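WARN retry 2 of 3 for item q-0093 after timeout on previous attempt; input resubmitted unchanged.
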Amino acid sequence: MVTYDSEMVNSILLSEDLTTSTFFAIENDEEPDDHDTQLTLTQIFHAVLAREESDYNDIEKISFDYLGPDIEDLADGYRYINDFASDKEFAILPGNTRWNQFAGTQLSIIAQMLVPSKKVSKISFTKDYPSEMRYYNRQGMYNTMHVHLVPK
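OK item q-0093 returned
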């Protein structure tokens, strides 16, 4: 967890093998930008990896636990159009007619900024009930977005 002035700003979990990262919260906007020590999300992510003696080039997947209403609706709409069960995992690959819509989301762009040496090869979604790692209060099932990365 990354804090500013004792308040949680970002919550990042790394897998044991350091190839997957899950963001449970991205709240950089909560930190005032009136000081010269403010770090970007990319700088924070790279520092967290360095602390674990890892490198961002080793990351193969970045997951986002909180999507916001626009991406949540996009994922649920895709499930509905394709008649998928509400909890069915699905993936979007390059060449899919909806690829640009999913790859152009803010979270997909963030994943590419975090790991600039790689490109998005697949975007997948799972849906489940909130885990204890979530730092916000929601009821019901929600999507998690998984951005899969490969070398450019």
